[in-house]
C-alpha cells in the first residue's frame, strides 16, 4: 500500500486482519487491514464480487468476520449487534418504511432512542429543511420519486448524529443527471456536517468526485488506498491503473533499469523509457500504462530528446462534444486511445500513418496483465 | 379480457365463448350445493324438500333458542379462537425463523412442519387419541385446542412464510442500523407490513378448527361438542332444517371474514403503492 500522505488523523474505524468466508473455503475478504479516519469520506471501490460490500456489511454488523477484529473508536465491535453500533446506513433501494410517512421515517431513529416529543419534532423539521422537503412531510415513500426517497433515506441516517454513516451504492438506482446532482449534495453534507462517511460504489467517476480517499478492492484484497489524484497519477499496479480512468496498455519486456526509470522493449516493436513502478527486474515482462490525455500526435518522426516516440496508424476518430478521441494502432494494440481537442480530429484521416509522443514520466511500467 | 371489441376472428370468439361456458359450469359446480341449501333454511315445513311449502324464520329461531346448538356454537368459538391464537404464535415464530435460516436441511424441516396437512385426518385423530388418553386430555377443551393447533399451525406457517418472502430484508436491516432492537423492529416495522399475511393465516387457522369434525368425533366428550359435530349427529339422528339455518349462518360468517381480509389486503397495497 502506498504511503506518503499527510500525518494521519486518529482512526475512527480499524479493520485488523479481517477475513471473511461464506462457505468455509473461498475467502471473499482476504486479510484486510484498513484505517478510517474521523471526518473523512472514504470510498470502497471495486468490481462486483471484490469484497467491498461484504466489508461494509461487516462494519454495519450484518455480517460477522471469520477472522480478525473491527474497532470503532478503539472499541472492538465484532460481537456488538447492529442496533448498538450507532452507525447510520443508506441502502441502494432506499429501504424506507412504506407504512410510515416521511416525517415518521425520519423520526424513527429518534423515537427508538426515547427522544422527547418536542425534540423529535424540532430535529425532524430541521432534517426536512436540510433536504428541502418540508412540504412532503406527510406523504408516504411510495408517493415520492427515487431521488426524493434517497434524500429522505439520507436525512434518516443523519438525523440521530451517528458517529459513522455507511452508504451502499446509494445512487445506483438513479439516472445519470440526478446521480451527479446527488453526488454534489452528499459531498456538501459531508463538508458542512463534518461526519465520517464510508461509501461503496463500483463507479470510479463517482468515487473520484466525492472521496477524500479511495480503497480499491479486487479479489478480496485492497489493491491501493490513496487520494483520488494519487490513485490516478500513481497507480501501484495494472488493476488500479485500469480501473481508475481511461488507460492504454502496451505489453513489453524490461531491458535495463536505471533508478526510477527503465527501458522497455515493446512486444509489438519499438522501445520506450518508462517509470519503473511495479516490475521485478531486468528481463521481466511488463504492462505499460499511458493515459490518453498525456499523449500527443505528431505528423512525422522529428525527434526531441527524452521523449518517447512511436509510429501509429489512425483507425478511427470519435467526436464527444467537449473533446475527441483518436483510436490508433500502436505496437500491436489496435485500441490505443489519444485524447484530442474537439476540432483536432478533422486533421486525421483513417489509415494515415502518424507518430505519437509521450514523456517517460507519464508512462508507467506495471505488473503484466 | 372483458373487452369484446378486441375479438376479431371467429376462432377467437369461439374460444372466448367456450371460456365463459366452462367457467360458468365450474362456478356452478362449486357453489350450487351451498346455494341449494340456503332457501331450505327459510322453509316453513319440517322436511328438506323443494318446493318450499312457505317462508318462515322458524329454523333460525330454533337454532338460536336451542341450548344444544348454542352450546356447540360456543364450543366452536372457544376452541376456534384459542387454537387460532396458539397456532398464530407458533406458526409466525416458525415462519420468521425459517425465513432467515439458510441451510440445506430447511426443506426437510419445512416438510416436517407441514406434515399435519398431508397426513389423513383419521390417522392424526387416532394417533392423538392414543397419545392424549393416558394423560387425561381426551374429553377436555385443552386437548381439542392442542389438537386443532397442530392442524392449523401449518397453514399459518405457509401464509405468513409467503408474506415474509416478499418482505424486503433491507427494511429490518435499516431498522437495526437506526438503533431498533430486533423486538422493536418487529413491532414497528415487520409486524405492520406482514399484518395482512397474519390476518389470512389467522383466518385459515380459524376455518381449519371451525369445520374440523374427525378429531372432535374421536376426542370430544358431550361437553365439548362443536358445531360441525352437532350438525353431524343432527343429520344422522333427527334431520331437521335447523341444520340448514346453521349452515347459512356459518357461510355468512365466512363471507364476512373473507371480505374483511380482502379489505385489509387492499389497504396495504395502497400504503405500499402510494396511489
UniProtKB/TrEMBL annotation, chain A:
<keyword id="KW-0813">Transport</keyword>
<dbReference type="InterPro" id="IPR005893">
    <property type="entry name" value="PotA-like"/>
</dbReference>
<keyword id="KW-1003">Cell membrane</keyword>
<dbReference type="InterPro" id="IPR017871">
    <property type="entry name" value="ABC_transporter-like_CS"/>
</dbReference>
<keyword id="KW-0472">Membrane</keyword>
<dbReference type="InterPro" id="IPR003439">
    <property type="entry name" value="ABC_transporter-like_ATP-bd"/>
</dbReference>
<keyword id="KW-0547">Nucleotide-binding</keyword>
<dbReference type="GO" id="GO:0015847">
    <property type="term" value="P:putrescine transport"/>
</dbReference>
<comment type="subunit">
    <text>The complex is composed of two ATP-binding proteins (PotA), two transmembrane proteins (PotB and PotC) and a solute-binding protein (PotD).</text>
</comment>
<dbReference type="InterPro" id="IPR050093">
    <property type="entry name" value="ABC_SmlMolc_Importer"/>
</dbReference>
<comment type="similarity">
    <text>Belongs to the ABC transporter superfamily. Spermidine/putrescine importer (TC 3.A.1.11.1) family.</text>
</comment>
<dbReference type="GO" id="GO:0015417">
    <property type="term" value="F:ABC-type polyamine transporter activity"/>
</dbReference>
<comment type="function">
    <text>Involved in beta-(1--&gt;2)glucan export. Transmembrane domains (TMD) form a pore in the inner membrane and the ATP-binding domain (NBD) is responsible for energy generation.</text>
</comment>
<dbReference type="InterPro" id="IPR013611">
    <property type="entry name" value="Transp-assoc_OB_typ2"/>
</dbReference>
<keyword id="KW-1278">Translocase</keyword>
<dbReference type="Pfam" id="PF00005">
    <property type="entry name" value="ABC_tran"/>
</dbReference>
<keyword id="KW-0378">Hydrolase</keyword>
<dbReference type="GO" id="GO:0016887">
    <property type="term" value="F:ATP hydrolysis activity"/>
</dbReference>
<dbReference type="GO" id="GO:0005524">
    <property type="term" value="F:ATP binding"/>
</dbReference>
<dbReference type="InterPro" id="IPR027417">
    <property type="entry name" value="P-loop_NTPase"/>
</dbReference>
<protein>
    <recommendedName>
        <fullName>Spermidine/putrescine import ATP-binding protein PotA</fullName>
        <ecNumber>7.6.2.11</ecNumber>
    </recommendedName>
</protein>
<dbReference type="GO" id="GO:0043190">
    <property type="term" value="C:ATP-binding cassette (ABC) transporter complex"/>
</dbReference>
UniProtKB/TrEMBL annotation, chain B:
<keyword id="KW-1003">Cell membrane</keyword>
<keyword id="KW-0812">Transmembrane</keyword>
<feature type="transmembrane region" description="Helical">
    <location>
        <begin position="144"/>
        <end position="164"/>
    </location>
</feature>
<protein>
    <submittedName>
        <fullName>ABC transporter permease</fullName>
    </submittedName>
</protein>
<feature type="domain" description="ABC transmembrane type-1">
    <location>
        <begin position="73"/>
        <end position="261"/>
    </location>
</feature>
<dbReference type="Pfam" id="PF00528">
    <property type="entry name" value="BPD_transp_1"/>
</dbReference>
<dbReference type="GO" id="GO:0055085">
    <property type="term" value="P:transmembrane transport"/>
</dbReference>
<dbReference type="GO" id="GO:0005886">
    <property type="term" value="C:plasma membrane"/>
</dbReference>
<dbReference type="InterPro" id="IPR035906">
    <property type="entry name" value="MetI-like_sf"/>
</dbReference>
<keyword id="KW-0997">Cell inner membrane</keyword>
<dbReference type="InterPro" id="IPR000515">
    <property type="entry name" value="MetI-like"/>
</dbReference>
<keyword id="KW-0813">Transport</keyword>
<keyword id="KW-0472">Membrane</keyword>
<feature type="transmembrane region" description="Helical">
    <location>
        <begin position="77"/>
        <end position="96"/>
    </location>
</feature>
<feature type="transmembrane region" description="Helical">
    <location>
        <begin position="14"/>
        <end position="38"/>
    </location>
</feature>
<keyword id="KW-1133">Transmembrane helix</keyword>
<comment type="similarity">
    <text>Belongs to the binding-protein-dependent transport system permease family.</text>
</comment>
<feature type="transmembrane region" description="Helical">
    <location>
        <begin position="239"/>
        <end position="261"/>
    </location>
</feature>
<feature type="transmembrane region" description="Helical">
    <location>
        <begin position="193"/>
        <end position="219"/>
    </location>
</feature>
<feature type="transmembrane region" description="Helical">
    <location>
        <begin position="108"/>
        <end position="132"/>
    </location>
</feature>
